[in-house]
Amino acid sequence: MTENNLQVLLASRPEGLPKGSDFEIKEQPIEDPAEGEVLVRLIYLSLDPAMRGWMSDRKSYVAPIGIGEVMRGLAAGEVVVSRDERFSPGDRVAGLLGWQRFATVQGKDLEKLPSGVPLTLAMGPLGMTGMSAYFGLLDIGQPKAGETVLVSGGAGAVGSVVGQIARIKGCRAVGIAGSDDKCRWLEDDLGFDATVNYKTGNLRDELKRACPNGVDIYFDNVGGEILDTALTLINRGARIVICGAISQYNATTPVPGPSNYLSLLVNRARMEGFLIFDYQDRFGAAQAELGQWIQEGKIQARSDIVEGLENAPQALLRLFDGSNTGKLLVQVGAE
Ligand SMILES: NC(=O)c1ccc[n+]([C@@H]2O[C@H](COP(=O)([O-])OP(=O)(O)OC[C@H]3O[C@@H](n4cnc5c(N)ncnc54)[C@H](OP(=O)(O)O)[C@@H]3O)[C@@H](O)[C@H]2O)c1
């Protein structure tokens, strides 16, 4: 190929919020695939809060990204050259392709995407964030009709799907989000029963108003003060699903634990974390059910798309200042 590859590398480990100098944008020749490998042209790169953790050198569920390495990231794209018999040029695939225009990867690490499914859905409600909403709510939360499901980060990729599945299961869905526009979208378009803008008013009072029967499931995407406040509103036998804690990902000092945790004892409640990678063997069934709900109009998806790989470092910050609504993607190449 005559075209060069453009890559975004990790240049240094961020202190607090990542800054431009933590990344390096580099042009390189495209790597030819060896036997068993596939060359993929990226179309959409998923930006995820977890990336902030991968940039830090601390013990986690995966090794940190090395300095000078291509930023790790899930993406969807199109096969250009295949030296794996399972793939042909033109196939649409997804995998950990990284922050680059072209990825040369092992065929065994790629998922072939069904034709006819828009890539934005494959990267959103049918991708990792949809899977997190589905298994976090249904497996860990175990909702029952009539219960109240409260979800923070409600207008984000995971949270917006959590609330819609809660409605499908006959629950009262209450979303917490950071702007009135986001709250209106959740109530008017997605059918949430109530919402709370955590940036205005008294959080506890507002949550009590929105959850008059208390909280049976709290799906936590943000941690910190919102988790602590939600703990004061849980019912007996409540389930708290720890999906993430974005309010703490850029902390530069030790993060205090939730001070209201004894509410778990008083209410015989349970708080449990999960990692979506543990559910991979059940993704197919979840995608089939979510796909059905999307077709029936019971789940709506929204993507927030930033153009151009070179804008990815700046776009990542949108997750932390709340300027994304729905699934944040970077369009790396043409559809
Ligand atoms: N456990 C797993 O396997 C798994 C898998 C995928 C994702 N996750 C986690 O799920 C969570 C949501 O991920 P996502 O991809 O769906 O992101 P997202 O919700 O689409 O985007 C992040 C949102 O978090 C909110 N936020 C940012 N800083 C905040 C703060 N200090 N306090 C309260 N809210 C804040 C912002 O919305 P507002 O405008 O509402 O502030 C922002 O739009 C993250 O914690 C992520 O790490 C976990």
What's the quick description here?
The chain is of the alpha/beta class and 335 residues long. The protein has helices at residues 50-54, 119-122, 128-141, 157-168, 180-189, 203-210, 224-231, 263-266, 283-295, 312-316, 318-321; strands at residues 4-10, 23-29, 37-46, 74-82, 92-96, 102-106, 111-112, 148-151, 172-177, 194-197, 215-220, 234-242, 270-273, 303-307, 327-331.
Description:
The model has no long low-confidence stretch (mean pLDDT 97). The chain is built from 11 helices and 15 strands. The radius of gyration is 20 Å and the shape is globular. The chain starts with a strand and ends with a strand. It is an alpha/beta fold. The protein folds into 2 domains: 4-124 and 302-331, Alpha-Beta Complex (Quinone Oxidoreductase, Chain A, domain 1); 128-277, NAD(P)-binding Rossmann-like Domain (Rossmann fold, 3-Layer(aba) Sandwich). 46% of the residues are buried. Strands 3, 4, 5, 6, 7, 14 and 15 form a 7-stranded mixed beta sheet that branches. It has a 6-stranded parallel beta sheet with strand order 10-9-8-11-12-13, with helices on both faces. A two-stranded antiparallel sheet has the order 1-2. The longest helix has 14 residues, at 128-141. The chain has helices at residues 50-54, 119-122, 128-141, 157-168, 180-189, 203-210, 224-231, 263-266, 283-295, 312-316, 318-321, and strands at residues 4-10, 23-29, 37-46, 74-82, 92-96, 102-106, 111-112, 148-151, 172-177, 194-197, 215-220, 234-242, 270-273, 303-307, 327-331. Bound molecules: NADP nicotinamide-adenine-dinucleotide phosphate (NAP). NADP nicotinamide-adenine-dinucleotide phosphate (NAP) binds next to helix 3, helix 4 and helix 11.
